[in-house]
Specification:
Largest sheet: 5 strands, mixed
Distance between the termini: 39 Å
Radius of gyration: 18 Å
Bound molecules: adipamide
Shape: globular
Strand content: 15-25%
Number of strands: 11
Helix content: 25-40%
Number of helices: 8
Oligomer: single chain
Order of helices and strands: HEHHEEEHEEHEHEEEEHH
């Protein structure tokens, strides 16, 4: 889902997610990925100054209910309750509304985030769902090859990335596809669009497969999609958009006997050598 949130207007922002979940489920999607901090909007200073933990806890309950109501898994992103400071989290809730994985952003972007939040330390989680292994990262983290590589070597087929990207479309156009290709996995990157708290978001949400190309779009309709249009990046500005694509098992784990031509990135890695260089 790519859409514009209204900072601190949780009712509005949850309504946008609810409508997207209904639309996605109707089109056959099994999981809806939403942008970073979408239920509260991307406004780090205002979140720190005005948001209460009760509001955050209530939003988490309502997001689980959205997943359950529409029978679709959901990745949402909220501030963590203060303990004593707040992190930025991503949570995967399954179609029954059960929390299956939570990640706290380990690489905070810029002074605004670093003043308003604390960085997480825990390793990004893997969740088994729908026959695939799903990894969670948040925004800036996907720009560090180490984070996606860590999930890939642990078996991730798909890395799901709520984001809040403004003024740097190179990330969506170049870095996100590179992460998918260099690990032979699919990366889904869901951004805000429009303007929030004076920030103009890039949009350009994308779902990129192991070959670096946009994943094929699932065409809703009576007949199974025989040929699917590619999922072009969402437009920068304007209205909410839903990219619905079919994602599958990783190809990065191939070894020479499975794929005679290579490249075999994960197979050919030399971590002991890299550690000696550190
Ligand atoms: N919320 C974020 O982590 C924003 C990341 C933007 C990084 C960039 N290169 O502009």
């Amino acid at each position: 889902m790519q859409a514009a949130a209204v900072p601190l207007d949780v009712d509005h922002d949850l309504a946008v997610i609810d409508a997207a979940a209904a639309d996605a489920a109707a089109r056959g999607a099994e999981l809806l990925l939403t942008p970073e901090l979408f239920p509260v909007g991307y406004a780090p200073a205002r979140i720190r100054a005005e948001l209460t933990d009760a509001t955050i806890d209530d939003a988490a309950v309502r997001l689980a209910a959205i997943a359950r109501r529409h029978g679709i898994a959901l990745v949402h992103s909220l501030p963590s309750p203060a303990d004593p400071h707040r992190g930025i989290t991503a949570t995967l809730v399954d179609a029954a509304g059960t929390v299956r994985g939570v990640h706290t952003k380990t690489h905070l972007f810029g002074p605004a985030e670093q003043e308003a939040f604390r960085p997480g330390e825990a390793r990004p989680p893997l969740v088994e769902l729908g026959g695939l292994t799903l990894g969670l990262l948040i925004c800036y983290e996907v720009e560090f090859p180490e984070t996606v590589r860590d999930l890939a070597v642990r078996g991730a087929d798909v890395v799901l990335v709520p984001t809040a990207l403004a003024g740097c479309p190179t990330v969506a156009r170049t870095l996100v596809p590179a992460r998918a290709v260099e690990n032979g996995i699919t990366v889904a990157y869901a951004n805000h669009c429009g303007v929030e708290d004076g920030l103009v978001f890039d949009g350009e949400s994308v779902i990129v497969g192991p070959d670096g190309a946009p994943a094929p779009r699932l065409e809703a309709g009576p007949e199974p999609a025989s040929s699917s249009a590619e999922v072009a990046p969402a437009r920068a500005g304007g209205e909410p958009e839903l990219l619905v694509a079919e994602v599958g098992p990783a190809r990065g784990h191939f070894t020479p006997d499975q794929d005679p031509d290579g490249p075999w990135y994960l197979h050919d890695r030399r971590p002991a050598l890299y550690r000696r260089w550190a």
